[in-house]
Amino acid sequence: MSPTFSLSRSLSSLLKNLHGHPTFLFFSSFSTITTTTTDNSNSEIPSRPSPPPIQVSFTESAGRGVFATRRVGAGDLIHTAKPLISHPSISLLSSTVCYFCLRKLNSGIQVPSQYQTVHFCSDECIQESKAFYEIEKRVDWSAYNEHCSEIVKLCGFLHLFKGCLGAASADSLDILQPARLIRQMILEMEEEFGLLKNTLMKAGLEEEQIEFLTKQWYTGVLARIRINAFRIELVGGSYEDLLLSAAASVEAEAAVGNAVYMLPSFYNHDCDPNVHILWIENVNARLKALRDIEPGEELRICYIDASMDHCARQTLLFEGFGFHCNCPRCVSGD
Ligand SMILES: C[S@@+](CC[C@H](N)C(=O)[O-])C[C@H]1O[C@@H](n2cnc3c(N)ncnc32)[C@H](O)[C@@H]1O
């Protein structure tokens, strides 16, 4: 995910103190929807971005969730979100996607280094990822990549995110809900942690650059990434067509990478969702209403393939995400 926004410490601690209190949080800083107004002379004047019609608050049975603050029409773009951190799929790293924004490339700007050559779509993406890539390129990730899944690689990459952005971002993921970890998972994570630490030491990183990297930090971050990382699949077709349609699923191409976002991580799951998250051309996410939504209604996305039967959905959500789904469709037994 990119450093486009990060949660301030004050907001983070505010949220930590909110459990049990019906306080609403407004994420006006996440607004990315721009509107235009037309004056009497018929010329279009761009206006300031309007805040997205949402707030984060507590649900009755699924922790925090995202709620509509005003009516949203089917097909409306509710808001967009830039990632906190993203990483291309390892198999695509050195060729077909932009290292920073995951845009598909026919040809790109090559940036060679000792261990790998990556591609960028623009000078802007090179600049945006400079802090990460300057460190990542010094590291021979081959042993770590061989052993770890894509998601775990994302965690390894997070160390760079934290190291590069400094202490201000040290707790930026703390606000996200961690997955419940069973003992076997913790043991695997500890093994990966050792591998990551060795990989970074071999690259000659300074002790103070990785002093934050403790087992506790690693398992905490990975537990959050497990349920909050999105697999990025770009959809083809025109953006306008997609906004107009309220299709529950759009054809997606293979995954180009993984990313973690702040606001989209507060969306709960529903097997009959009213919101869809999609990626058109790059890692920037768009959240779109699938049907008309009334003020106060909770906005929910679907984490899995909703066409599966009740039993398969429940099993996947429990084994993959660690919760028993209590959405109306599951409660009805459908
Ligand atoms: C990505 S987080 C969503 C935000 C989360 N509720 C929070 O407070 O941060 C996923 C977690 O939310 C809860 N959750 C989401 N959808 C749910 C559902 N349909 N039924 C029960 N719990 C759900 C589960 O605890 C799950 O692990």
What do these coordinates show?
The chain is an alpha+beta fold. Among the domains are: 81-229, no CATH class; 307-333, no CATH class. It is 30% helix and 19% strand. It contains nine helices and 15 strands. It has helices at residues 9-16, 123-136, 142-147, 150-165, 183-202, 215-228, 239-244, 310-321, 328-331; strands at 25-26, 36-38, 44-46, 54-58, 64-68, 77-81, 85-88, 109-111, 118-120, 229-235, 252-260, 268-269, 275-278, 285-289, 298-301. The strands form five sheets. The protein has a five-stranded mixed sheet with strand order 1-4-5-15-12, with no helix packed on it. A three-stranded antiparallel sheet has the order 6-14-13, with no helix packed on it. Strands 7-11-10 form a three-stranded antiparallel sheet. Strand 13 (275-278) and strand 14 (285-289) form a beta hairpin. Helix 2 (123-136) crosses helix 4, helix 4 (150-165) crosses helix 6 and helix 5 packs across helix 6. The structure holds S-adenosylmethionine. Residues 62-65, 177, 227-228, 265-266, 268-270, 321-323, 325-327 line the site of S-adenosylmethionine.
